[in-house]
């Protein structure tokens, strides 16, 4: 009885120690076995593994491809046109021993902070060596590849492999953006003013041409009218001359009547002249007196 009472705690302790010496490495991770902070073993293959209880500990790291957002970063291209750039990187831990030695107990958080510094420095360096048009163009894959290649060597010292770097956003800073919008607005207003001026010039030219055409048409019409009127008057005079030439006495009679009609009008018209005036020659003639 006493023996079994003594053995039971020992068995429990042995079982606990045995279980604590076992650990499972997941296929999505890598594990380090540490002893007093030093790396004793690296477990990269999935499955069951062993460690010394109480003395050794296991630290696990993600073996999958990880993503890291790089916050907004101002860069100055060759043309001194400042830009704000957002980027992200994809990376993975390739050498967990090197990774542990580089970042210590800080793990992923410390590694990503140092990776941020690498990516930001390389982004400034690469984008600062080209013009803003190259950065803003749709074909900027070469720039992203240069940033990635530049970051690979430095990231390798952290036990990391940079797989890809992408530029998400490339915009002007807020102050520059407002200035650019103002400049674009002024440019468009200038172009609009030029178009209005050209339109007014064209309108004036068309209006002047139309006025000239009106004057020419009216002048031509008046000239033709005067010609027609002159021809009609000539024809009328010819008819009158022919008619009067056939009967001179009738011509004398018609001319006298026309003169009387124009001179002796109704109203307050009055004339003072001698009775033997030539004006009354027809009335004083025997033909006029008989009428």
Structure notes:
This protein has 291 residues and is of the alpha+beta class. It is built from nine helices and eight strands. The strands form three sheets. The protein has a three-stranded antiparallel sheet with strand order 3-2-5, with helices on one face. The protein has a three-stranded antiparallel sheet with strand order 6-7-8. A hairpin with a 2-residue loop joins strand 2 and strand 3 (38-43).
Defining traits:
single chain, 291 residues, alpha+beta, Tetrahydropterin Synthase, Chain A, 3 domains, 3-stranded antiparallel β-sheet, 9 helices, membrane
* Low-confidence sequence ranges: none
Q: What's the domain count?
A: 3
Query: Which structural class matches the secondary elements?
Result: alpha+beta
Radius of gyration: 58 Å
Q: What's the structural blueprint in terms of helices and strands?
A:
Blueprint: H1 2-20, E1 22-25, E2 29-35, E3 38-43, E4 47-50, E5 56-62, E6 66-75, E7 83-93, H2 96-103, H3 107-127, H4 132-136, H5 141-156, E8 160-171, H6 174-246, H7 248-263, H8 281-284, H9 286-290
Antiparallel strand pairs: 1-4, 2-3, 2-5, 6-7, 7-8
């Amino acid at each position: 009885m006493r023996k079994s009472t003594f053995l039971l705690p020992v068995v429990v302790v042995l079982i606990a120690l045995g279980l604590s010496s076992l650990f499972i490495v997941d296929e999505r991770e890598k594990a380090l076995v540490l002893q007093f902070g030093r790396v004793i073993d690296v477990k990269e293959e999935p499955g069951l593994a062993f460690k010394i209880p109480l003395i050794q500990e296991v630290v696990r790291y993600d073996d999958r491809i990880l993503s890291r957002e790089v916050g907004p970063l101002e860069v100055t291209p060759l043309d001194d046109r400042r830009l704000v750039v957002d980027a992200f990187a994809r990376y993975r831990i390739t050498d967990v021993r090197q990774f542990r030695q580089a970042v210590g107990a800080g793990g992923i958080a410390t590694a990503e902070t140092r990776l941020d510094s690498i990516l930001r420095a390389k982004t400034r360096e690469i984008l600062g060596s080209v013009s803003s048009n190259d950065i803003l163009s749709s074909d900027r894959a070469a720039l992203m590849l240069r940033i990635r290649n530049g970051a690979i060597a430095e990231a390798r010292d952290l036990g990391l492999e940079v797989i890809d770097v992408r530029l998400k956003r490339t915009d002007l800073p807020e102050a520059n953006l407002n200035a650019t919008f103002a400049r674009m607005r002024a440019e468009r207003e200038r172009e609009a003013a030029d178009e209005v001026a050209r339109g007014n010039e064209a309108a004036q030219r068309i209006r002047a041409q139309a006025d000239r055409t009106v004057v020419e048409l009216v002048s031509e019409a008046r000239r033709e009218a005067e010609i027609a009127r002159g021809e009609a008057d000539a024809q009328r005079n010819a008819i009158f001359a022919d008619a009067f030439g056939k009967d001179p006495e009738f011509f004398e009679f018609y001319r006298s009547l026309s003169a009387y009609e124009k001179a002796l009008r109704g109203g307050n018209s009055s004339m003072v002249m001698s009775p033997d005036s030539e004006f009354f020659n027809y009335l004083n003639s025997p033909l006029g007196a008989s009428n």
